[in-house]
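Run: sequence + protoporphyrin IX containing FE -> complex structure.
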Amino acid sequence: MSEHKVPTGPCKGPKGYPILGVLPMLRSNALAFLERAAKEYGDFIPMKVFMSNAYLLNHPAHVEHVLQTNYRNYRKSPMLDKLKPILGEGLFLSEGELWTQQRKLIAPSFFRQRVEAMAGTMADVASEHVAQWDKRAASQDEFSLSEDMSFLTLEVALRTMFGNGMEESEAKAFSDALMVGNEVSAERVWNLTRLTEMLPTARNRAYDRAVQTLDRVVWRVIRERRASGVSGDDLLGVLIDARDSETHEAMNDQQLRDEVLSLLLSGHETTAVMLSWAFHFLAQHPACLERLRNEADMVLAGRVPTPDDLKQMDYTKRVIQEVARLRPSIWWFARVAVNDDDICGQPIKAGTTVLISQYLIHHHPSIWDDPTVFNPDRFLPEYVAKRPKFAYLPFGAGPRVCLGSGFATMEMQMVLAMLLRRFDVSITSESNPELSPMITLRPKKEITARIKPRLRH
Ligand code: HEM
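>> structure
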């Protein structure tokens, strides 16, 4: 690794088209375009996006400034307003006073003890999934691992949120709606205007129906819970019981609806995509798979994992950290400067967009040795200590860091350990699939697999 200096003085960037600037390139393949720009122009890259100024920031010192030191000056980009019909003013999108108040109110629901209390529900869902995999292993049919992980993480999200209180047909309608909502929102992010969203196309109608379904179900559950007078011991109950530490006020129903959908949407697809990538990389690295399985065999001795077991499974955690480095589910942020600023000596005018890509920073050749190589041991403490803190940010950083990182990590550890100790997974899709950089970083074609009972050597 060479010394990684913060760039100073005037910097160059890609030209782009008149008026539109680099927008067409971002729309056609944002990741490939930003990757090329970083290779050619370095760590601080000016560009025009539809007549407004933007910078791609690719140095940990920039990340620290925008996400931590002066985070109040950087609001989430209005591009994300396309997610508002579903997420409303929930934590993921809210800003200013409302965000501060809600973060304070909800953060305790994700403190370690609370998350550990959800381990039993996660283990139940994972055990049911093992039973489904037994059937798949018997048939040896090829199946979509991407879709399978999506169902699994959605089941975890729904059960931790609502307990067992949803009828099967309603849960199915809700899951379908969440998936459609997710997909269409992702397609809309780069649209310049909302005109196309108003056309009566099949896709737009499906989206409107999905939002109605999500609303109908969440409102029904909230009303029934309120009417029962019992908050419940699932995440919804915890959110109902949450009180502001100073005013002692609880959330109103609209805010509760927005937070429930924000948590469900922020947590399920991100975790599913990362799990599919984990199977993909482990299939290509049999020595790493063997270490992970040995750890699961030793620590668990056939039991369902408890939170204490998972704490001892350091190698499994390092595998997850490495997957999150190579394929961060959320691979970029866009923030807009509220007031004029100075980022490490570079002047930034109010209204400027700053882009930060976790994917690019996680592959930065000045920070990571052999950045494209899968090597979980780069997360051994002695190596972590040598890297800048803001060089690794799969869950974001600073005050708006992901609220569900502990939840997601526990879920991924549990799922990988429970499935891989029982099954051999052969990935049947491409070994180096093209990426589809939408809101989450999925492969363009889904990851497929065949499984059979584990053959022990
Ligand atoms: C592997 C799985 C996950 C990844 C990679 C991930 C990643 C992220 C990232 C990068 C952010 C910051 C976005 C920004 O600053 O613009 C974020 C925020 C957030 N995440 Fe996650 N997330 C994951 C799972 C979850 C889960 C399971 C939950 C909830 C149960 C969750 C809830 C949230 C919430 C509420 C926020 C907004 C926090 C705020 O602005 O205060 N995430 N996540």
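>> summary
Residues 76, 91-92, 103, 262-263, 266-267, 270-271, 274, 329-330, 333, 394-396, 400, 402-404, 407-408 surround protoporphyrin IX containing FE (CB under 6 Å). The chain has one domain: 23-453.
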